[in-house]
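step: validate -> pass
step: tokenize input -> pass
step: predict -> running
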Amino acid sequence: MRRLEREKDENFLKLKHSLLLKSSLDESCILNQSLSLIANKWTLLILMALMQGTKRTNELQKQINGISPKMLNETLKKLINYGMVKRKVYPEVPPRVEYDLTDFGISTANPLAVLLDWSVEWENKLTKLYKKSKK
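step: predict -> pass
step: emit ->
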């Protein structure tokens, strides 16, 4: 447990140092740019779902509660254009389409794992805040 706390402290200090080097978090900041591309709930949830392996559209639709078919397709197209997801169409009738992560998409595993760990660690507080925000 002590090692985990030390790693968190080290990560905080590294982030703090990196941010101190940046005078502004404007559009020239790579963090700003990367967050503007992928920091929305549907993008992150699709990436996390595809971390489990190859999925068809209907599997993603069932797994990601609340996403509309239109939003799912738009987000998948965006992730394909970013080079994070690949789409494979099988020449069958009816056509079968599968989605999988590219190496670039897989590279999001570490930051998403950190976000998941943080979410689990603060689950009670986050749940209360989420419920409060829905009122």
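step: describe -> The longest helix spans residues 2-21.
step: cleanup -> pass
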